[in-house]
Write the structure tokens for this entry.
Amino acid sequence: MRGLDYPIARFRCTPTGSACIRKAAAYETSEADRSPTFFRKVELNKYHLSTLCASMQRYTYSELDSEGREIRLMTLLPRADLDETHVTLRNVTLDPTSPPSYEALSYTWGSTQDTVPICISTVIGDESALAESNDRSEKPNEISNQQFVPTYNVLEVTRNLAVALEHLRYDQEPRVLWIDAICINQQDMQERSAQVQRMGDIYQLARQTTVWLGPEEDDSCLAIETLDDLASRITVDFSTLTRLAIGENENDVALADLDKDPPFDQKQLTSVIRLLERPWFERLWIRQEVQLAKSAVVVCGFNFLHWDRFRSVCFRLALGGYLEELLMEKIYGSCVYDSREEQSSYDSLFYNLWMTKRCKCSDQRDRIYALTNISSLPRIHSPEEQQVFKPDYGKDVCSVFQEFVLKEIEWSHMLHTLLFCDLQEALPNAPSWVPNLPASIPDYNMTNLGAAGLT
């Protein structure tokens, strides 16, 4: 399990004996108390830090060298050093030939109106001790005392992220992560645009992408155990969408048959559905974050499951008739569909816009920006032209959509975008030939796909 960056010494196997699900032994609270405990801890941290805010300065970001491919990495300091959540930030060069060692976090921001203060400091001195997270020989106290200044600064993060940090924090070891809300100065539109351009590289070069679904609740532990049990008995060849039974006994073979029910009781099925209904599966950006990852792990509370196993089970459930239509569409789009595996024109940017119609994002410009790294643009065009949709948050939504329509018509030599120009749902201040994406796009199905001339 070392490849998943979860130290074996800190985890024990669940009663099922699964090698893919482990639970932190240091937090053996009851299932009923675990999530509330962490929410209470966040509340205590918020209260404690709030009383100190008058004497603590708000964190000021250092500038990034945009020409030098710089990004920021965050180090989550261990509990052995500090009670409150404390992180450090440092600037590093994202060199594809020799990338720094870090994990990238995929998560749901939550409400920006509900925030929690965390302590943050800037790294000084030799940065190599924190950069090499695979080398655990240094003592945490020695690392932390050497690496950050003692003056605390304050950074506000959403409650969802604060809860995630509490769960992901190790007891004895620092953990190096890239988290967009912390590693990007969200108030600097120029930096935000430049860093979003690099997000494809950030997730591709990360040692691992950690998918945070949220704290343990609604029998999520049972859901993960159920999914892991099913994943241990079937596998999926996604290049051919073929389901194969790992075992040869009758029950395992039946699991690969979509016409037969999986061996779930009602409690197990309910827990799985509740897990799959979590907000993470609705996010638009997750398509890029998991599709570009070298390796990914799904974490819920203190339980985790490798992405490949999780994806195989989602495929079995999404196409097996056990989920309602909207949930099935959401799970298929977020977990099963991978545009890089498609061998047809379906992986165009326009098709991916169609596939992600129901996805949520806080900025409508991301309807385009979140998909360009996982969409194939026409091969007849130069690499420079394929960068036409570089994120630029200085442009308004109308300009971004208008640019997309013009390029889609030029590349496809078709006018199918005009089919979706609905004057009743027109984009404010936009020309009549620019559709209001994605509201004006019909619901996805193969009939509509053929009507648009894309088959």
